[in-house]
């Protein structure tokens, strides 16, 4: 279902009028975690002012340590829905547990499957039963084939609105958090009709590298960007070091415009 043999023309996922895929380049921006209503609303305003069409933000957080901030859960989802009302931005947020798919889908416009859950087959099947679009992140050790077969799990359930998101893989490189495998863009383009989104934040782990990687992603033919921004990165409860400040996000989007015209 995900292959070009099945469908040669590119898939455009339509999220209530916001399109991802085809001739569009779509910015999705927001904080790593929803921390408070104030923080989320500030980030949402910054996302919109910078040119984003979608708001990201985790309410259920997959943290490496069980003692780290785990997210605001349903309260966070409610803030996201309120931010959508306020700004018109569509909401993309992670679901980690098959038992929570229904709850998250009640608030979200797009269900995000995190890198750690790319091969959580019960979860993939559960989101495949919904009619909510899905942003599927590549596992840090996932091959292209495994990535596409994960998408296939969702599509096999009848949900064809899948966007692929590359976010960096684990290599020997230690100066970035992960290594962005940008070859994934042209290679996946050849294999699948599904839209391809790049996450420059988790791949680099450092806000300073985000603009160059974002420009490279656009030049390589990606369909959109999933980018972390925070009104006060120093005091973020998660991923502050890789979060752009509002003014830096806006500046980056401006700098990307000439590249967008050239591709
Ligand atoms: C995220 O985007 O919020 C996230 C946790 O990313 P990943 O699953 O790629 O680590
Ligand atoms: Mn994060």
UniProtKB/TrEMBL annotation:
Look at the named UniProt entry and state the broad enzyme category this protein falls under: transferase
Q: Name one GO biological process term.
A: aromatic amino acid family biosynthetic process
Q: Does the keyword Amino-acid biosynthesis apply?
A: no
One function term, GO molecular function aspect: aldehyde-lyase activity
| Key words, A-Z | Transferase
Which ranges carry the DAHP synthetase I/KDSA domain?
A: 14-258
The catalytic activity of this protein is classed by the Enzyme Commission as 2.5.1.54
Protein's name according to its UniProt entry: 3-deoxy-7-phosphoheptulonate synthase
Where does this protein come from, organism-wise?
A: Halanaerobacter jeridensis
| Higher taxonomy | Bacteria, Bacillati, Bacillota, Clostridia, Halanaerobiales
């Amino acid at each position: 279902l995900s292959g070009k043999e099945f469908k040669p023309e590119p898939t455009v996922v339509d999220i209530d009028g916001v399109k991802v895929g085809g001739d569009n380049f779509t910015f999705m921006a927001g904080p790593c975690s929803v921390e408070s209503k104030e923080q989320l609303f500030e980030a949402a305003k910054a996302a919109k002012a910078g040119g984003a069409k979608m708001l990201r933000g985790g309410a259920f957080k997959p943290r490496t340590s069980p003692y780290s901030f785990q997210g605001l859960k349903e309260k966070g989802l409610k803030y996201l829905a309120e931010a959508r009302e306020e700004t018109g931005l569509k909401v993309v947020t992670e679901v980690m547990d098959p038992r929570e798919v229904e709850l998250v889908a009640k608030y979200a416009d797009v269900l995000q499957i995190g890198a750690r859950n790319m091969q959580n087959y019960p979860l993939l099947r559960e989101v495949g039963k919904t009619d909510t679009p899905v942003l599927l992140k590549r596992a840090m050790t996932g091959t292209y084939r495994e990535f596409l077969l994960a998408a296939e799990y969702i599509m096999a359930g009848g949900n064809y609105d899948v966007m692929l998101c590359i976010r960096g893989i684990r290599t020997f490189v230690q100066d970035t958090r992960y290594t962005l495998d940008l070859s994934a863009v042209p290679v996946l383009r050849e294999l699948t009709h599904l839209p391809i989104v790049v996450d420059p934040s988790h791949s680099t782990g450092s806000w300073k590298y985000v603009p160059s990687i974002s420009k490279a992603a656009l030049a390589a033919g990606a369909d959109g960007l999933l980018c972390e921004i925070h009104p006060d990165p120093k005091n973020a409860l998660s991923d502050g070091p890789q979060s752009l400040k509002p003014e830096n996000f806006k500046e980056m989007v401006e700098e990307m415009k000439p590249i967008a015209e050239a591709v």
